[in-house]
């Protein structure tokens, strides 16, 4: 009975932890100009603090996946949570670029520990239950990018940017304590840490085309968000002269629609097949991307850009859960290794997107809308080539 209650409660533990982790990026965004001014960072240097967070987020999955296969999912998550709290303290006390970059890198590594969480979800629940839970977790944890910029903007406007990190210390500590007492252990089969076997499994996963196609599709969908996340603070607050509070409200609207779409996935799965849901959502997202690029060239309005991102957000929110599960179902290797490869690719896309945008260095709506539609068209071409396993095709 106790274990059954833990399994029911487990998704909410992951939601709390994931919100804390993603807030470390989303609450941070509106504070970037203030931090740059306060610590005398250039625009490139302050953007490096974002890139280092994404580098940290892509650095440890391939190690932590096999470790969680061997020692369990719970211990990996708890250690990741402790490191998150310590790095947030370091960010709050930082006065130099090297310290801030180091702290942001360690803070980003908390993302890596989530491979254990998602491995546990795929192990504890059936296919449709897992898709619904992934959608639910996505819907609630999207509160981080939806409300994070708004909360961060309020802190910057009425207090000091360092309080953002002290808030993260608080919520991270609560999350770690909750996992210690209430998280179930889903890994019932301990796999060895034989390097040869691990590398063999990774090779099989990477060469599995049925895994690679949905994984890459997912990455290009996420890349659209990365483009908006990296560029929107400067475009809105410096080019269009909006306030940090206005920026936070805009992000709340955009990602609030992600919340609505992700929550609607549960209803959609009761009425449509996974294939039909994926196809409809893909075309809706394409429409939003096309409208974005046309409007940015013809009108160049930040309001219309936000409306287009709302459409994109709603469409992609119904794609992430099914695509994630399709990729996982394509492999037979230990779940920790599957989720490790998947999440590493997603995080690397974040870091590469940051570097690419720094090289382009163009703060215009037409540029970011063009990049977004390119990512969407690539993602769509991959989605329509995906092989949906028989276990989730109905």
- Shape descriptor reads globular
Q: Which band does the percent of strand residues land in? A: under 5%
SSE string: HHHHHHHHHHHHHHHHHH
Rg for CA atoms: 20 Å
What's the number of helices?
A: 18
User: What's the story with the biggest beta sheet?
Assistant: none
Helix content: over 70%
Structural class: mainly alpha
What is the distance, rounded to the nearest whole angstrom, between the alpha carbons of the first and last residues?
32 Å
- How many β-strands, per DSSP? 0
Mean pLDDT: 84
Unreliable stretches (pLDDT < 50, length at least 5) are: none
Model description:
The chain has 394 residues and is mainly α. 82% of the residues lie in helices and 0% in strands. It contains 18 helices and no strands. The chain has helices spanning 2-26, 32-39, 43-57, 61-71, 73-92, 97-108, 110-124, 127-141, 143-158, 162-182, 195-206, 209-239, 244-271, 274-298, 302-317, 320-329, 335-360, 365-383. It is globular, with a radius of gyration of 20 Å. The two termini are 32 Å apart. The model has no long low-confidence stretch (mean pLDDT 84).
């Amino acid at each position: 009975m106790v274990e059954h209650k833990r399994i029911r409660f487990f998704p909410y533990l992951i939601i709390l932890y994931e919100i804390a982790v993603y807030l470390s990026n989303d609450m941070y965004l509106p504070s970037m100009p203030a931090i740059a001014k306060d610590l005398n960072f250039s625009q490139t240097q302050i953007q490096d603090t974002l890139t280092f967070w994404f580098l940290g987020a892509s650095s440890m999955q391939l190690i932590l996946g096999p470790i969680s296969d061997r020692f369990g999912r719970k211990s990996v998550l708890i250690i990741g949570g402790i490191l998150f709290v310590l790095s947030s303290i370091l960010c709050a006390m930082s006065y130099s670029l090297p310290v801030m970059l180091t702290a942001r890198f360690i803070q980003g590594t908390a993302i890596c520990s989530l491979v254990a969480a998602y491995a546990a979800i795929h192990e504890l629940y059936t296919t449709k239950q897992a898709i619904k839970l992934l959608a639910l977790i996505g819907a609630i944890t999207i509160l981080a990018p939806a409300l994070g910029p708004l909360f961060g903007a309020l802190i910057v406007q009425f207090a000091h940017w360092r309080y953002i990190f002290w808030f993260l210390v608080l919520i991270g500590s609560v999350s770690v304590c909750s996992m210690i007492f209430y998280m179930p252990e889903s890994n019932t089969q301990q796999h060895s840490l034989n390097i040869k076997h691990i590398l063999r499994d990774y090779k099989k996963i990477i060469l599995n085309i049925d895994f690679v196609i949905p994984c890459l599709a997912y990455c290009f969908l996420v890349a659209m968000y990365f483009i908006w996340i990296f560029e929107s603070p400067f475009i809105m607050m410096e080019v269009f002269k909006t306030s940090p509070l206005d920026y936070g409200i805009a992000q709340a609207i955009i990602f609030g629609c992600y919340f609505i779409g992700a929550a609607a996935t549960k209803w959609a799965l009761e009425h449509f097949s996974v294939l039909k849901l994926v196809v409809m959502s893909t075309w809706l997202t394409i429409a939003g991307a096309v409208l974005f690029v046309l409007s940015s060239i013809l009108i160049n309005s930040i309001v219309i850009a936000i409306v287009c991102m709302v459409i994109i957000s709603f469409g992609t929110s119904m794609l992430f859960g099914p695509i994630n599960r399709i990729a996982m179902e394509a492999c037979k290797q230990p779940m920790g290794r599957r989720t490790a490869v998947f999440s590493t690719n997603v995080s690397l896309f974040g870091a590469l997107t940051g570097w690419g945008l720094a090289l382009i260095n163009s703060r215009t709506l037409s540029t970011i809308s063009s990049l977004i539609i390119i990512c969407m068209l690539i993602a769509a071409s991959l989605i329509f080539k995906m092989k949906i396993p028989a276990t989730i095709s109905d």
